[in-house]
Amino acid sequence: MKTENLPRVKVEKKRGEQVRKALKELKLLRTDAKITSDVDFIYLPLIRVLKEDEIGEIGVDELLTREFEVFEQRKKIEDVVGFKPPFEIIGDIAVLTDADSINERNEQLVAHAILKLHKNIKVVAKQISPVEGVFRKRKMKILAGENRTETIHKENGCKYKFDIEKVYFNPRLATERNRVTLQAQRSGKEEVIDMFTGVGSFSIQIAKRASQSRVTAIDINPDAIRYLRENMELNGVRNIEVIESDIREIYAKLKNKADRIIMNLPKSAYLFLDEALSMLNPEGGIIHFYDVESSYVSNDKSKSLEVAINKAKEKLMITVKEACEHEGFYFHTIEILAARKVKPYAPYAHIIGIDATIKK
Ligand SMILES: C[S@@+](CC[C@H](N)C(=O)[O-])C[C@H]1O[C@@H](n2cnc3c(N)ncnc32)[C@H](O)[C@@H]1O
After folding, report:
1. Residue 339, pLDDT score
2. How far apart are CA 357 and CA 338, in angstroms?
3. Does 11 sit in the ligand 1 pocket, CB within 6 Å?
4. Does any ligand 1 atom lie closer than 6 A to the CB of residue 131?
5. How far is residue 142 from each of residues 103, 114, 136, 233, 332, measured CA to CA in Å?
6. Per-residue pLDDT tens for 23-69?
7. Ligand 1 and 264: CB distance under 6 A
8. Pair (81, 118) in one structural domain
9. Quick one: 132 and 193 in the same domain?
C-alpha cells in the first residue's frame, strides 16, 4: 500500500458529501486517494492547498496535511505500447478504428495490451473497411480474445444487442441521442418517426424514457430490424412500430403522422426531406436533421466549424423551401432551433445536427 502526505480538508460528516461534490466540481479533489474518517469528521484529500477565496466558498476552516492511502495509477495503453492507438469500445469489444496507423506486428501488441488493461474487454477487432454501402456497415478483423462480433452495448440506461459487422452503430453519438431523447421527454405525448433507425439507437431510448410517446422505426437492413426487435425485448419497450423497408416505399402510408422526425443518415438525409415533410403532422413538427459538411477556412478550426454549420443550415433551408414549392406542401415557415457539431467526420469535415421546427 502506497501512502502520501497530502493537503486536506476536515469536515463534519453531515456536510461531507456536499463538500466532496464541490471539491470534485472545482477539480480540487485527489480522486486517486482514499477518503478517511473518524467518529465525527471526514478528511478529503486535495490536489493542492486551498486559496483564501476557495476556503470561503467551500466553508471549511482547518487546513492541514494528512497521510492518505493512494491507489496505484492504472497503466495507460501508451505506457505499454509506446503510442496511443485510436480505438473505441462497443459493449465488450474494442475496435481499432484507424487501420493505417498500426502495422501488423504492432496490432498484436496493441490488442493484447488492451485485453490486459481492460478486464471488461473480451474481443479486440480492427476496422478494415470504411463505413460503406446502403446499410452503412464496416468490415472487421478479429485480432485477439473471443472470436465473435456480437455484443451488448449499454448507453443512457438502455441496452443494445447487435453485431458490429452487420449493422451501423456509433458509440460516439450517445450525447446526441440523450439530447434528442430529453427533448422528446419534455414534449409530452408525441408520434415520433425514426427514418433510419438501425438497431433502434434513438427509438429505444425515446420509447423507454419518453414512454408516453409512440415511435415508428424504419430501416432497410434486415439484420438491424432483427436486432431492433430483440432490443425492444431486452429493454422491455412495446411502444415501437417496427418497419423493415426502404423509407421511400413506406412513407406514403405514414403521411401526416409525425410530431418529431429523426433523420440520422448524415451523408444523404437531405435527399429524403420530401419524404420527411410528407410524414410531418400538417400542424407542423420538429425535424432532427443530420448532415456532413466540410470546410477549410484557415487553420482556425472554430472558423471552419462555423462555416460547416452555416452550410448545413443553408442546405436544410433551401431543400425544404424547394420541396414546399415543387411538391405543394402546406409548410411555410422553418425555424432553426439549434445547430451543432455532433462529431468529427474527417479533417475539417463534421457531422452537423440541426433541430428545426417546420410550421404551416
Ligand atoms: C447512419 S445509420 C444510423 C442508424 C441509427 N439511427 C443510429 O444512430 O445508430 C443509417 C441507417 O439507415 C439505414 N438506411 C439507409 N438507407 C435507407 C433507406 N432508404 N430507407 C430506410 N433505411 C435506410 C441503414 O441501413 C442504416 O441502418
Report:
1. 95
2. 10
3. no
4. no
5. 15, 13, 20, 29, 52
6. 887 888 998 899 999 999 999 999 998 887 777 666 666 668 899 99
7. yes
8. yes
9. no
Report if residue 158 sits inside a domain. Answer: no
Alpha carbons 352 and 309: distance in angstroms, whole number: 6
Is residue 305's pLDDT more than 80? yes
Cα(313) to ligand 1 centroid in Å equals 21
The answer to whether residue 148 scores a pLDDT higher than 90 is yes
Owning domain of residue 203: 170-359
Examine residue 288 and state whether it is found in any structural domain, yes or no: yes
Is 173 touching ligand 1 by the criterion CB < 6 Å? yes
- The CATH number given to whatever domain includes residue 83 is 3.30.300.110
Domain count for the chain, please give it. 3
Q: How far is the CA of 220 from the centre of ligand 1 (A)?
A: 7
Contact 130, 99 (CB under 8 A): no
Q: Is 10 in the pocket of ligand 1 (CB under 6 A)?
A: no
In angstroms, what CA-CA distances link 254 with 111, 188, 292? Answer: 47, 21, 27
- For ligand 1, mutation pick of 172, 219, 225 (most atoms within 8 Å of CB): 219
Q: Are residues 119 and 226 in the same domain?
A: no
Q: Say yes or no to pLDDT of 328 above 90.
A: no
For residue 268, pLDDT over 90 is answered with yes
Q: For ligand 1, atom 1, which residue shows the shortest CA distance?
A: 265
In three state form, how does the secondary structure of 271-314 look? HHHHHHHHHECCCCEEEEEEEEEECCCCCCHHHHHHHHHHHHHH
Interatomic CA distance for residues 277 and 293, integer angstroms: 22
Say which amino acid occupies 325.
E
Question: pLDDT at position 301, please?
Answer: 74
Q: Atom 18 of ligand 1 has which residue's CA nearest to it?
A: 246
Is 219 a pocket residue for ligand 1 (Cβ < 6 Å)? yes
Best of 175, 265, 351 to mutate for ligand 1, by most ligand atoms within 8 A of CB?
265
259, 286 contact by CB (below 8 A):
yes
Over range 209-227, report the average pLDDT: 97
For residue 197 and ligand 1, the question of a CB distance below 6 A is answered with: yes
Instruction: Judge if 142 and 114 occupy the same domain.
Output: yes
Residues 135 and 232 grouped into a single domain:
no
For the Cβ of 292 lying below 6 angstroms from any atom of ligand 1, the answer is no
